[in-house]
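Sharing in case it's useful to others searching the archive later.

Someone asked me privately for the predicted structure of Protein farnesyltransferase/geranylgeranyltransferase type-1 subunit alpha, so I'm posting the question and my answer publicly. Question first, with the sequence:
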Amino acid sequence: MGDSSDDEYLGTEWIPYSERAEWADIAPLAQDDGPNPVVSIAYSQKFREVFDFMRAIIAKGEKSQRALDLTTDALRLNPANYTVWQYRRDILRELKADLNVELDYLSEVIGQNSKNYQVWHHRRVIVEMLDDASNELELTENALINDGDAKNYHAWQHRQWAIRTFNLYDSELSFVDRLIGEDQRNNSAWNQRFFVIKHLGFNPNLVDQELIYAMNRIRIIKNNESAWNYLVGVIRQSPYGNGLLNNHPAVVEFAEELYQAGNRSPYLMAFLIDLYQEQTMQNECSDREQKARKVYDICDDMASKHDVIRRKYWQYVANHLKDQLNKSSEKANQ
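And my answer, the predicted C-alpha cells:
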C-alpha cells in the first residue's frame, strides 16, 4: 500500500508510533522475511511501522485500550488480516468493552469492505457474544441493496446465519420477492427463497404456492435459468409422489404450452426431457414409444441448435434412454 493510500486511511496528520510518548516503552518488532525472500513487498513506512508495533504488542500479550486503537489503525491498512481481527476480539473480551460500539465500528468497516470475509466473521462473533441479531437484517440489506451488489455472497451468508440462528424468518419472503422483482435473474435471491421455504417445510399447499410463483416469473422471462432451477428444486422436494415432475399436472401443462407456442428456452427443453423420460420409464405408460420419441427429438434439437456446447451430454441422454428401454424390453420378453 502506497503512502497516498495510507494517508487516506490514517490521515495526513498521522504521527508515527515511534514518535508518540505513550508508546516509548514498546520496541517495534520488524517482519522477518528471511535472508532471501522470494518476493520483497515494498511496504510504505506507515504500513511497516503500524505492523511492527502490532507484532510487538501481540508478542508482549498486551490487551489494553491503546492496543485496541492500534488494531484499528492496522485494520484500516489491511482489513483482511485475520491475526489482527483475532487479537482485537481477545482485547475486547479482556477489556469487557461495549460491544454495541464495536458493532457501530463494524458497520462502517463493512460499508467499505463488504466482500471481506474476515470483517463478516468478526461481526458474527460479536453478535454471538451479544446474543442479539436485531441489526443484522438491516445491515445485510444495506450491503445487498444500497451498496449495489444484490449478489454479495458474504452478505447473504451472514444474513442466512442470522435468520437461522435467531429465527428471523417472518418477513424474509417479502424481502426476497422485492429483490426478485428488481432482478428476476438474481440467483442469490432465488436461493434465499428456497432457504426460507425449506425452513417452512415443503407441505403440499406451500409447494403449490411456490410452483405458481415460479411459473408466473417464468411467464415474464421465459429464458430465466434461476426461475427454472427454482421450479425444479421445489418439485424435487415435494412431499407427495417423491417429487416427480409428472405428479404436478399444472406445471406439465404450463411447460407443454410454452413449448407448443414455439418457446425453445434450453431450460424449458431440459425440463421436458426430464419429464418425458420419467413418463417413458413408468410401468403404466401406455404411449412409451411416443414419449421416448419426444425425448430423442428434443435432445437432438438441444445438441444441434439450442445447447450445442453440451451436445455430447444430450446425445448421451438420448442413448441412455434407448439402452434402458432395450433392457426393459428384453426383460419383458424373457
